[in-house]
Design goal:
Structural class: alpha+beta
Oligomer: single chain
Number of strands: 4
Shape: flat
Length: about 290
């Protein structure tokens, strides 16, 4: 037992103060600081029998899962099915529902149907989680400054755009992609650089057995111009031996975006990219020194 001599000699007086503060709704930490009791054993004895205020109690994050697990068990689901439905461990489920009666044995058809429903529920739950993660990530970006768009555009071009090679001289700006988001960013980047829209030239690159006209209309709407202003569409010959995945209504081929008279712009892009590389490497070297 803790010695009550010295500053804690008036135990009853301290207890009276501690109980009064507890009933006012103060937490242990607040009471400890208020009456200057730093000894946890003494504090426990001062507050013996006094319940903690509701606001200090942490909610059990699994209460909802436990209630749902019990509900599913009463509906006749097995541990495996409840695990698929809720995404929690069977060890937790067994603790939550062990006092409930076991479900009756089912026929193979019934078990198969329940398992299918459980798997479908799991896929739906995973899809909700996937979409929520994407929404949260998208919302974290916020507004983009001109400098951020500038740097993004340079990196985007150097990853996906046409580049000059010693064995193939082509100092011109040309960008090809099937992702509409990439095309939108690239066009916005050209607008930021004040490249006149009259210098933009577009044409579609697509398999010959796709919906060519629909694809042309889609890309024209995306870049806010008319199909008539597009160059001639390049058709890829269909190879029956090739099993393609990029088919169906969502397949629109690629859009080629070229900038006329862009040799000087290309050289600046290459210089900007070298500057980005040097700056990023230098900043890493400085931070590691």
């Amino acid at each position: 037992m803790t010695n009550l001599n010295g500053k804690y000699a008036d135990f009853e007086g301290l207890r009276e103060q501690a109980v009064a503060l507890r009933r006012e709704g103060l937490s242990r930490r607040q009471i400890r600081d208020r009456i200057q009791v730093q000894n946890n054993d003494i504090l426990n004895r001062l507050l013996d029998g006094e319940p903690a205020p509701e606001w200090t109690k942490r909610p059990n994050a699994k209460d909802d899962l436990r209630a749902k697990a019990r509900e599913l068990r009463l509906q006749g689901l097995t541990y495996d099915q409840i695990e698929l439905e809720l995404g929690c461990s069977k060890s937790s489920i067994s603790l939550w529902v062990r006092d409930l009666p076991k479900p009756p044995k089912r026929t193979r058809e019934e078990a198969s149907a329940i398992a299918k429903r459980g798997w479908e529920a799991t896929l739906q739950r995973r899809e909700r989680e996937r979409q929520e993660t994407k929404r949260t990530a998208a919302g974290s970006i916020g507004a983009m400054s001109d400098r951020e768009l500038f740097l993004l555009g340079v990196g985007l071009y150097w990853a996906e755009g046409t580049k000059d090679k010693p064995y193939a001289r082509r100092e011109r700006v040309a960008f090809v992609n099937s992702d509409p988001g990439m095309i939108r960013i690239f066009v916005a980047w050209l607008d930021l650089l004040e490249v006149p829209r009259q210098q933009h030239k577009y044409h579609v690159l697509i398999h010959e057995n796709a919906h060519v006209r629909e694809a042309e209309n889609y890309w024209a709407d995306l870049v806010q111009t008319s199909v008539e202003s597009f160059g001639r569409t390049t058709l890829k010959k269909h190879n029956p031996k090739t099993v393609r995945k990029n088919t169906g209504e969502a397949y629109r081929g690629c859009l080629v975006v070229e900038v006329q008279q862009s040799a000087d712009l290309y050289r600046r892009v290459e210089g900007w990219w070298c500057g980005i590389v040097d700056a990023s490497v230098s900043s890493r070297d400085l931070s590691g020194s």
